[in-house]
Automatic annotation (TrEMBL):
<dbReference type="Pfam" id="PF13279">
    <property type="entry name" value="4HBT_2"/>
</dbReference>
<dbReference type="InterPro" id="IPR051490">
    <property type="entry name" value="THEM6_lcsJ_thioesterase"/>
</dbReference>
<protein>
    <submittedName>
        <fullName>Putative thioesterase</fullName>
    </submittedName>
</protein>
<dbReference type="InterPro" id="IPR029069">
    <property type="entry name" value="HotDog_dom_sf"/>
</dbReference>
């Protein structure tokens, strides 16, 4: 089940935190509960992606994007993700989640997220390709930035993100199965 109560708590907390500029990091803290586990008693890989919502949506709120989405009647969707898992997160273990916008192109926003264990080790990291949508499809990022009151140009995306995007472009769609 989706963690609605946890999300409500995170969005409530984010309301009292200062606004974030584009590229600044939203930090949140989370616990691996029994319902987050897989058969091996560690954080389920699919649940990891769901928990990343708990950082991504408050980031959008603190940056002012949620207000724009409501005002313009736009939606927010994820159009891709690349995840690297490196350390197990066990039952009742606490993690620090870091979420930030790392850049954008004409159509997509790129958000980097990571979970850090108490000892300072990174447990996992993801980069998401997100899109803002209206009834006609994807809203271009220049319209998004203008609606948010920004005239900023995107920072250059890291090479590893650009290579991921090239690989995604080379991947056949629809799948050939």
């Amino acid at each position: 089940m989706y963690p609605f109560i946890r999300m409500t708590k995170e969005l409530w907390r984010a309301r009292s935190q200062p606004r974030l500029a584009l590229g600044e990091t939203h930090v949140s803290h989370h616990v691996c509960w029994p319902w987050d586990l897989d058969l091996w008693k560690e954080l389920n890989n699919g649940r990891t992606l769901t928990l990343y919502d708990l950082g991504r949506l408050p980031l959008a709120q603190r940056s002012g994007l949620i207000d724009v989405l409501k005002r313009e009647r736009w939606g927010l969707t994820m159009a891709g993700v690349c995840v690297r898992y490196r350390r197990r997160v066990r039952l009742m273990e606490r993690v620090e989640m870091r979420s930030r916008l790392i850049g954008w192109d004409r159509r997509f926003l790129y958000i980097e997220q990571s979970m850090w264990k108490a000892g300072g080790e990174c447990a996992n990291q993801a980069v998401y390709r997100g899109a803002v949508t209206d009834r006609n499809g994807i809203v271009t990022t220049d319209r998004i930035m203008a609606a948010m009151g920004h005239e900023a140009t995107s920072p250059e995306l890291p090479e590893w993100v650009r290579l991921w995007l090239e690989a995604e472009d080379a991947r056949p769609w629809p799948p050939q199965m």
